[in-house]
Fold:
Amino acid sequence: MTMAMTTMERGFKVHVVDDDDSFRTGLTRVLNASGLHAIGYRCAGEFLLSDAASSPGCVVLDVSMPGPSGIELMDALSLRESAPPVIFVTGCTDVQTSVHAMKSGAVDFLTKPVRTDTLLDRVKRAIDLDRERRNARQEVRELRERYESLTSREQSVFLGVIAGALNKQLAVELDTCERTIKTHRARMMTKLRAASLADLVRIARVLGIAPAETLIADEVA
Amino acid sequence: MHHREAFSAPTAALFVAIAVVPTAHAHASLVDRFLSSDGALLTGIVGLLIVQTALIVVLMVQNHRQRQAQDDTKRQQSEVAHAARLVLVGEITASIAHEVNQPLSAILSNADAAEILLSATPPPLDEIRQILDDIRRDDLRAHEIVRNLRKLLTKREVQMESVDLNEIARTALLLIKADAARRGIAVTTKLDGDLPHVQGDPVHLQQVLLNLIVNAMDSMSEVPADDRRLEIATRRRDTRSIEVSVIDSGAGVKASELSRLFDSFYTTKPQGMGLGLSIARAIVQTHGGNIWAQSNGARGAAFTFTIPMAA
Structure:
């Protein structure tokens, strides 16, 4: 059988949502025995009421359940930014359901009976994905905070620099001398913890900030 | 078969007439003959015996043919019922597969979990024992579904035995549970816990109930997902019979359709054959019961059948 999970999976939980007692118990058991931390939920409501819907990990979700179905739960989850990735499990190989499930943002689709090797593999992948997504979101949050700590002058310099403007051009544009621009630029780099122009461009991309068009236009003109 | 029967009745009458007329004639002078000669008397008695024997043979042949005709009709009925049962099972195959898959999948996970746990030092024996118990239970659960399925698929003539209608309802529920969940239908049951058994054929009664349930589920396809409700209820109707009802929140039945609903080849479904309800009625009538539908206007319909209690 498979090896115990590495420390990488620590702190991540696997949420098993299925109305069938035997299936849910079996699945949580094998996940726990494999060194993961699995928790079972009887229905979509029970899962949504817990704090699990935004905690690190992944969700193993039965498509057809009485009450809100797995797909309805998926739709509710996909509105939340921090929702964990969802792996769908289904008893039937209904093409329509599969298509709908994948379109609604599920990362994977398993059919019963679920093979343990496949399950562990998919769960690991989903947890990796959740970690990546969390890291990415964390980075965006930090960068946004740093960016928002810039003064409006420094923000203007930032926009100018990533658009490729020279200090001299910026001085004209912002109606000041080149030395002041240099000071703004240095402070801006420190606040953003950027070491190079390449860092600044990456930060702009992560934050979804477009280079200042007016400066480019000026340069071309 | 019936037309042959029609010929044999007059033939028998003719036979009797031919046999009786000379006997009656003989009867008039019976005393004379009795007195006149022993030989004649003997002839009369032998003649009478021959006629009687012939009559008995004719009646026996006729009886046999009649019974054969009845058997043939019965066989044909049960063949049609069987064909309809195959169609019915076909409609709920996905549901049945799901219900078998569920315990099978659990067994697989449990066996794997047990194997992993066995390599721990020391292995958690209590937990492993619990796992083995669960595996056993799930195996029986899968077996139960397969057993019921096999019963439904087997061809059989009506065989009366003591039947618990609540059990019939629970089995039907088990078979359609997944289908109902997939269609987003909330199923509830209202089973009278103190229901006496009835004399009936469990497979055929199962067929009737499954048929009503599948119809009810089909009728809800256009209803908003939150409004799809199905209720299966059993109760004593009166001192003589038990009724089983399937109540849905579907499209309902038009008043003009109510009377024709149980006719053969009458259907409101685009892919329907119109046999299900007519077979259901034939089965219920064979059991000495009744079946009918009530419409709740646009808020669904209720189908009910009764089965007499064992005397």
